[in-house]
Fold each of these.
Amino acid sequence: MIKQFGPSGQHSNERSLLLRSEGPILDVVIKKSKILSGRNFRGLIDTGASVNCIDNMTARKLGLPIIDYKQFQSASGQNLTPVYVGIIDIAEVGIEILGQFYGAELGLGTKSYHCLLGRPFLSNFIFSYDGPDGVFQLAQPSTMKAHMAFDE
């Protein structure tokens, strides 16, 4: 299965500028449990992130439980970071991520995403980024299960 994504735009130049400014974004639903409905957000695919992260303010608003605090090295330095448990559902690619998510200060005032989908997410896909055309692709090997659990 190969799915192509990219910002809305009529021409490749317009899409390319949007992709460069926003990054590769997917629509996600973040929720506390399988039986509770979640809220729609946007998740940024971050090839440099060693873990999947959720914005701290978003996690608090959704009532995601904190199960631990861990030292974590991010672009802003090393900090003691809450670790939340929850679910990120990415219907566009048929994946539901159950597990632990590191808290992050994603600066929601300036960003348009509420979670980072890092290498644990990407490890199950072939990811291609076509900057000139303004699109990115996620290909899922046919042997892949449509359900993933990530534990750090």
Amino acid sequence: MQQFLAQSRAYFEQGSKAGDQQREAKEQPDERPLPESVAGGFSADSDDGGVMTLVVGIDPDMDKNGVALVSDGQITELHGMSFFQLQSFIDAYPDAVYVVEDVEANLPVFNRQLTVRKNLKVAQDVGRVKGVARLIADYLAAKDCRFIKVKPLTGRFKVAKKKADVFNRMTGWTGSSNADKRDAALLALYGIRRGQLVVRPSEVPH
């Protein structure tokens, strides 16, 4: 794990090869150590002998993916990462459990009050996000990481995504956040159903 932490810190200091030289200091990870991950399958209500599992929520985006780190039911870090930064993060934490929003589950919605040109722009942006989400899932599968895709959360979770004060009361988070990061955290906290088993692709029976 120390090697993973060192790789992660070095990565965030140097930026990805694609690089985002203007990221703000608040996007930098803190120095708190992360827990060891359990081996094998992970269940939301399994008894893992007291060993905590790192759960990572991902809200796909074409520019900055919302990424949340959750340990023992508590949010430890929130980040905005480019696709290349996220790849390096996954490389550093292959034993985490990843919960990715399944944006392809959203049906296309067109606003009749917008012009055709603006609706086409919206459709183009949605298509780009769906493309990023598919690449993230493909990369996790290629790395044989434990992950699941979850339909966008609704109800009170959707409200918490939009409103920081509601999110803070629900989760106990006191730091800064935006909608993408809040969505990622909610996915990590509530996206896995009780008893749902998350395994590596290589462990799925064919």
Amino acid sequence: MPSLEPKGEGERAPTTGSGRGSLRHLARRLLDARRERTAGRDLERRLRQELQDLDIQPPLSVTELCQALSKKRGRPIILQAHPLPVSGPSGLWLETDKADLVLYQKDTSPLHQDHIILHEVMGHIRGDHRPTPDGPNGRWPCPDSAPMRCAG
């Protein structure tokens, strides 16, 4: 079985074994990278279609996106900056019976705020990514007993 032998400055010839420098390992990494690129292209295609369906034109406005999604879903999405603890989540989606409330970190840059809002809106609300609740009827209990669901 060939070993790793220096080819030149910092380069090594691949081996046929099963270690990190093996051809099998290299082929596996190439296939993984190809799958990631394909998944990335699929996600990009779905997002472009979603934006087109919402009639959102570049450049993307997070506020415009939320308004269009609110209209499509028939319920308001309320965006609210809040000084969230640094050690906790930077954003939070609260779903009530009448509206969706997105809390996002007040103490960060506008670009980061857009990123947080997009994560909550497109990942949780539009992607229907919900946490597993501990409350009755699949809902999170509120201190004032108003039922709501939340995701961060």
